Amino acid sequence: MHIMNSGLFFLSGLYCIFGLVGILATIFWIWMLVDCLKNEPSEGNDKILWVLVIILTHGVGAIIYFFIRRQPRIQSSRP
């Protein structure tokens, strides 16, 4: 029985791709959480709110934080 004929080759490739995407998403999530904790100004409850959004919504919250808070903060700090 050939591994390519049985479909296991295709499934193992998909498994590797999804595993890699999952690992990269987890790294991105941790990066955004650390960025929020270190760089978000502590004005009112903003920092706590963003940490909760990132933690409770996982990847979606990290993406939202990246585009709504991190990008404008980086662009405004450039000379």
Automatic annotation (TrEMBL):
Subcellular location, record wording: Cell membrane
Entry keywords, A to Z: Cell membrane, Membrane, Transmembrane, Transmembrane helix
GO CC, one annotated term: plasma membrane
Every Cardiolipin synthase N-terminal domain range: 27-70
Membrane topology: Multi-pass membrane protein
Transmembrane parts of this sequence: 7-32, 48-68
Designated name of the protein: Cardiolipin synthase N-terminal domain-containing protein
Organism encoding this protein: Dictyobacter vulcani
